[in-house]
Structure formats: C-alpha cells, structure tokens
Amino acid sequence: MASFLRPNSTSYLEPTRFATSPHRISRQHWCNIQLKAKKQGSSESIDSSQSENAVLKVAWYGSELLGIVASFFRPGSSGQMSEESTRDDDEESECVGRAQVVEAIKEDFERSYFVTGNLTLKAYEDDCEFADPAGSFRGLNRFKRNCSNFGSLLEKSSMNLMKWEDHEDKSVGHWRFSCVMSFPWRPILSATGYTEYFFDAESGRICKHVEHWNVPKMALLKQIFRPSRWIWEKQ
Predict the structure, then answer these.
(1) Residue 60, Cα to own-chain centre: how many angstroms?
(2) Would you tell me which of 95, 128, 155, 175 could form a disulfide with 182, CB atoms 3.0–4.6 Å apart?
(3) 146 pLDDT exceeds 70?
(4) How many CA atoms lie less than 13 Å away from 182 in the CB half-sphere?
C-alpha cells in the first residue's frame, strides 16, 4: 500500500531531466544564428578576395602585354631582347658566393633594376621563380624583359633600398618606390614593400624572388586610373 501511494520517482524526474529550458533554447538558437552569419561573412570575404585576385591578374597580364607592344615602338628596339641584353657580359663580376650575390643586388637597386631591367644576371638562376601579389612565373629573361618594358611606360621613377636583412635561407630588402606613368592623365604610383631573395643551397644564386607590397592590392591598382594633381592644375 505504501509502495502504491509513493510517487514514482522516475515519472517525476524524467521531465525535469530531459526538458530543455526556454533560456537554453534561445541561447542555442542565437549561437546558431551567429555561426551562420560567421560562415556567410567568411564566404563573402573569400569571394571578394577571389574577385580581387582575378582583377589583379587581368591587370598584371594586361600590363605585361602592353609593355611588350610598347617595346616595338621604342627607338632601336625590335621588340625582342637582344643577345647583348640577355647574355652575361664578361665585364660583370662573378657571383661566386652569397656575399657577392647580396652586394650585386644592392648595386642593382642603385640602378633601379625594377624598372630598368639593369640587373646582375649571374646573381640569379636561369629558372628563378619571380612572384608578387598578382602572380608568379619562372624565367630570368622574362623578368628582365618585363622590368625593361614597364620602365618604358614611366615618365620618371624613384626606387630606394631602405633596409636590408639577412636570414638563414634568405635575405630581405625593404624598398620605397614611386613613379609617374607616361599615360595622358599622368597617374602617380607610390608604394613601400619588401622583396624576399631565396638562395640556392648549391650555387648560392637567387632561386626565388618574391615581392610584397605594403598597400592593399586594389588600392595600388586604383592609382593607375587616378589622374595626378598636375592634370587638374593644367586644366
């Protein structure tokens, strides 16, 4: 009889044990909303980054093509790199070690090799990889040609080596660059950045040349389409 009158503990405890409070449901629902928003934001960020990279690559390859076309109209140019510009001159100092390669690079900065193509060829492997935020490719001759062609699109330029760092497997050169392009609206490009020079373990020459810009990629691209103050003052 006592057992009949005693409440069944299981029947009273089960609802308490398994029921979820309204507060807990609300909190869980809010967490789900935050998670979905975070995933959506991440997806949009990836899509935006991919779009920017696509635009930048189109601009990069477009500028390379424009430089090649412009080279045909340069005085004394046949549109191809001459044998003299691609060979290693006997007068060039031999780069027999990393220290000599580093000194050669610093001298190349004094000649603004980024826009003149006037660089020490013996400091690089022939199949050296060249990379920047827009893309990458292999081949020393192509890099030299691109630098020379880009320089032909400039009215004036300035490039200064601001700092040099030596690490175990690479060196890093920090630089400041500015130029006025010879387009009708005379756009001004200005940026700071750094280049990583990776050395081949056997030859000591540069096997990888990686540029980094300290400005957003699209911001640098927009500078090309912005008329300089000189144009507005002239009008």
Answers:
(1) 11
(2) 155
(3) yes
(4) 12
